[in-house]
Amino acid sequence: MKELTKLSIKLMLRKKTTIFNIAFFSIVILVIVVLNAYSATAINYMKNDIYNSIYYKSLTIGPKEEDNIEELKKTIKSIDHVSLVIEQYAYNMLMDSEEFKNEKFDGEVFFNVANNQSLPKIVKGTNFPDEEGNYLVCPTNFYPTSNPDSLRKISSKYSINTNQYLNKEIDFSYMNREDTKKFNEKYKIVGLYNADSYLDVGVCYTTENALKKIAINRFDGEIDLTTNKPMILNQREIYVQVDNVKNIQSVENELSKLDISNKRSAFVIEEYFINIKNNISLISNIILVLTFFIFFILTYKQFSDDITSYKILRYLGYKRNNIYQFLIISNIFQFILGILVSAIICGIFYLGFSIVLNLYPFILNNWKICLDYKSLSYVIGVIIIFMTFGIGLSIMNIKSDKND
Asked: pTM for the complete prediction?
């Protein structure tokens, strides 16, 4: 039996179909894994970035000339699912901090407005102790840069771990819009949140009162030459945050009933991401079906080789049962080797890609890439079934040949 096994392995290694099978199945596995990784990335972006992003949960209100801004804000706040209402000019600011400047980051930090109802999930520390103070909730891994696109080239090892700054006050500065006056403020980091999106890794959330104070200072000394009034008085648009992306439509309907014009900051096209998932699942299944037919053709071709080997060995005096064992062992080793090599190749790909993504999480796309490990085990499982089917066909084909 030992000699028979050695002879079977030698025969298997000499077959051209062995190398082809290994290459073919490796390519099939990699293609399906890449497709499913893209699908998982899209769904992750939809669930964790879009649904949690304040940007997608916001509306802009355009008041009429006769509207009283404060009264209008109170009316909007009374609508169900509205979590925050603030003047448009005061919902987002870019601040500068020497504390966060280094060789990779310019120290520019985006301040977004939030309240305790609209803050992202706090993973360490607390939410705002009150709604008036200069408080910050920042990412756990912080990328303080004014150019988010540069993140593709920045390794995660350079991200700033904000644990060291929790409950500490940080100095920030900013200029008025005419760059003639500089302002300095201290802000206390009271909480940390996990940020996966490139849109959020450089964003800290602060209170409505803090941002309004910054906005007023930024308009300091700026006069509208037409009306000869402070420029800030011309900033009448209102920024509205909704508690959940799925409630945007409901709030829009209520605003329409009140004859309040509005527009979304961004539209969530959920069907787009669902279609990506469904289409990739369909493509993956089509690839597997085609793989089955190609495998069936390859197996059928191998039948002819097996029958030829069988006849030669019979002519040389080998017993029929020994030849059956010889050919079956050869096929089994070929399939096992194909699975192992394909799995190793895919494992190396996964490991290498995981290392790259860990170092450069935004290298390929603004979406955070997700590797779908379930698809890898699923595809390998299906191919094992194919190969088991092929072994069974080989046995049946050899035994059915009666031309001894």
From this structure: 0.65
